[in-house]
């Protein structure tokens, strides 16, 4: 009896596969032959490849094509391999691709209402209100506060790079809320559990992203109840203001006292009545979502990016000497005062940030969901509302056509006369109206932390570290793939080279 049931189920699955896997063939979109149930996604499903590498592997087999299709289980995903098409999706025809598609964040998670996850007009209204968080004058105030309450302190000796950068990033983002994190141990533990991806967690992520109903039915969630509670409490405490005031909190308090987010039809990029008012209730959960977004992005994404940057600077002592010379000269020019303007002048350090992020993107691909049926310009390719489009950013960033010897860390390639022609070959923060809102903030933070460190110390990789380090992206954001120990020697102590 059991065999009959298994055989019937297998036959039904094969029929379902055949129906689903006709999608790209019917549209004339190139793709590799899918396998039953997994489509093309088995390397990701079994944890053998992170998604960024998965898209890149397919791209290498479609090098001469402007686009190609993959099946993530039964879900058809269009992958773009042409910078003009990328520009249409991210910028020129943004209103047809305004949403991020469904991914691992489940409805119970404290991250569910964060900006990245909001859709349609609610996203537009929220982003519109949050955008003033990062003007140049607010950056200066944030920098003053970082220097006052989260000044990165370094001491001579040896430490593990990623841990140190995570601790600094936590202090810095808390200072952005005008606060300090009180229970650092509980917080660090929650952060670790949040980002650690065991094989079981990996399977859960697969269910959450690709079979959300089944995941909800079986009680799976992105984070455990304990982590969810800690992170919600931390976000709430940061928002309720237990320390100095901050521009971000004032912004949120402004929204809270209005009770609503309000925008005119003409402020939205949609057709319709331009004078119509769009009003959304500013619920507690929505405000918590925004605080969580800033906290989450300010922690992992920034800490890991800073970890990669520090690693490259420690491993390339010639680059390190140039950064030090640049920072020392700028400090002398500005009366030994750190300021947003002074950081802006550190162009070589900026080049290092860009180069490190080109090689080690914590988010190696971008995604969008079609918000209306759309035909790609200059092609017969059509996409329907709700379908997913991927932009394989890391493939462009590591393409020798755009960046000769792409594996090499060469900040010089970002100098004025050498930089690549198209801005769509460098996408670590995304691009267009959904580009990362915290880009200025995190670049400022990285320049400040590394700049300060290098004026006082020489930083070298300890012999304890197995070199070279690479990156892993099996979890939500990429990070160094092993512990990296660095040694700091005070510059005037006579021990440095
Ligand atoms: C180095 C650190 C960071 C990296 C690499 C990074 C990267 C990204 C990327 C790739 C996106 C998606 C962009 C797109 O789809 O086009 C994004 C979105 C976002 N990021 Fe960041 N981020 C970082 C730090 C931050 C920080 C510190 C904040 C806030 C303080 C922040 C706030 C946001 C917000 C609000 C969004 C959602 C934008 C939207 O959907 O409208 N990020 N980030």
Structure notes:
- The protein contains 19 helices and 13 strands.
- The chain has one domain (80-493): Orthogonal Bundle (Cytochrome p450), CATH 1.10.630.
- Strand 7 (374-375) and strand 8 form a beta hairpin.
- The strands form 5 sheets. The chain has a 4-stranded mixed beta sheet with strand order 1-2-9-6.
- The radius of gyration is 24 Å and the shape is globular.
- The chain has 497 residues and is an alpha+beta fold.
- The longest helix has 32 residues, at 284-315.
- The mean pLDDT is 88.
- Residues 115-116, 127, 293-294, 297-298, 301-302, 305, 362-363, 366, 428-431, 434-438, 441-442 line the site of protoporphyrin IX containing FE (HEM).
CATH homologous superfamily - what is it? Answer: Cytochrome P450
**Count of beta strands:** 13
**Overall helicity:** 40-55%
Instruction: Return the domain count.
Output: 1
Task: Tell me the structural class.
Answer: alpha+beta
The CATH topology turns out to be Cytochrome p450
Brief characterization of the structure:
The chain has helices at residues 2-20, 23-27, 42-45, 51-60, 83-92, 120-130, 136-149, 161-176, 184-195, 199-210, 212-217, 225-240, 247-258, 284-315, 317-333, 340-344, 347-359, 393-397, 439-456; strands at residues 67-72, 75-80, 157-160, 260-264, 277-281, 366-369, 374-375, 382-383, 388-391, 457-461, 471-472, 479-480, 485-490. It has 497 residues and is an alpha+beta fold. Strands 1-2-9-6 form a four-stranded mixed beta sheet.
Draw up the topology in text.
Blueprint lengths: L1 H19 L2 H5 L14 H4 L5 H10 L6 E6 L2 E6 L2 H10 L27 H11 L5 H14 L7 E4 H16 L7 H12 L3 H12 L1 H6 L7 H16 L6 H12 L1 E5 L12 E5 L2 H32 L1 H17 L6 H5 L2 H13 L6 E4 L4 E2 L6 E2 L4 E4 L1 H5 L41 H18 E5 L9 E2 L6 E2 L4 E6 L7
Parallel strand pairs: 2-9
Antiparallel strand pairs: 1-2, 3-13, 4-5, 6-9, 7-8, 10-13, 11-12
Helix pairs in contact: 7-8, 8-14, 9-12, 12-14, 14-17, 15-17, 15-19
Bound molecules: protoporphyrin IX containing FE.
Protoporphyrin IX containing FE binds next to helix 14 and helix 19.
Protein name: Cytochrome P450
Family: Belongs to the cytochrome P450 family.
Cofactor: heme
């Amino acid at each position: 009896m059991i065999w009959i049931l298994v055989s019937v189920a297998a036959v039904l699955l094969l029929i379902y596969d055949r129906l689903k896997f006709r999608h790209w063939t019917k549209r004339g979109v190139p793709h590799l032959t899918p396998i039953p149930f997994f489509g093309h996604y088995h390397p990701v499903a079994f944890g053998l490849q992170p998604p960024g590498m998965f898209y890149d592997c397919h791209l290498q087999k479609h090098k001469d094509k402007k686009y190609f299709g993959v099946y993530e289980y039964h879900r058809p995903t269009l992958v773009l391999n042409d910078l003009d098409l990328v520009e249409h999706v991210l910028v020129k025809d943004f209103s047809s691709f305004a949403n991020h598609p469904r991914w691992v964040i489940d409805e119970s998670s404290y991250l569910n209402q964060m900006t990245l996850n909001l859709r349609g007009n609610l996203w537009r209204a929220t982003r519109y209100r949050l955008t003033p968080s990062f003007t140049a004058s607010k950056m200066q105030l944030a920098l003053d506060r970082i220097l006052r309450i989260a000044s990165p302190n370094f001491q001579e000796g040896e430490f593990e790079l990623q841990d140190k950068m995570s601790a600094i990033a936590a202090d810095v983002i808390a200072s952005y809320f005008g606060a300090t994190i009180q229970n650092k141990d509980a917080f660090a533990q929650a952060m670790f559990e949040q980002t650690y991806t065991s094989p079981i967690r990996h399977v859960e992520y697969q269910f959450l992203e690709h079979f959300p109903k089944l995941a909800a039915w079986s009680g799976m969630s992105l984070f455990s109840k304990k982590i969810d509670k800690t992170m919600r409490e931390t976000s709430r405490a940061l928002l309720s203001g237990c320390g100095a005031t901050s521009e971000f909190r004032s912004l949120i308090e402004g929204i809270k006292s209005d009770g609503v987010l309000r925008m005119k039809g003409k402020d939205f990029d949609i057709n319709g009545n331009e004078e119509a008012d769009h009003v959304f209730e500013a619920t507690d959960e929505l405000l918590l979502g925004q605080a969580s977004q800033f906290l989450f992005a300010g922690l992992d994404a920034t800490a890991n990016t800073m970890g990669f940057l520090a690693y490259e600077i420690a491993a390339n002592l010639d680059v390190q000497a140039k950064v030090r010379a640049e920072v020392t000269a700028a400090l002398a020019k500005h009366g030994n005062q750190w300021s947003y303007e002074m950081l802006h002048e550190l162009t070589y350090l900026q080049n290092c940030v860009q180069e490190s992020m080109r090689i080690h993107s914590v988010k190696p691909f971008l995604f969008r969901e079609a918000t209306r049926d759309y035909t790609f310009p200059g092609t017969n390719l059509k996409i329907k509302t709700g379908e997913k489009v991927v932009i394989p950013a890391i493939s462009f960033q590591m393409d020798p056509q755009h960046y000769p010897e792409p594996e090499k860390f060469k900040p010089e390639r970002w100098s004025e006369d050498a930089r690549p022609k198209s801005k769509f070959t460098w996408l670590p923060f995304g691009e267009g109206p959904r580009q990362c809102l915290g880009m200025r903030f995190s670049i400022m933070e990285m320049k400040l932390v590394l700049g300060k460190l290098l004026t006082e110390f020489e930083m070298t990789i300890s012999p304890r570290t197995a070199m070279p380090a690479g990156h892993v992206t099996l979890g939500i954001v990429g990070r160094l793939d092993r512990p990296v120990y660095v040694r700091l020697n005070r510059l005037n102590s006579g021990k440095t080279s």
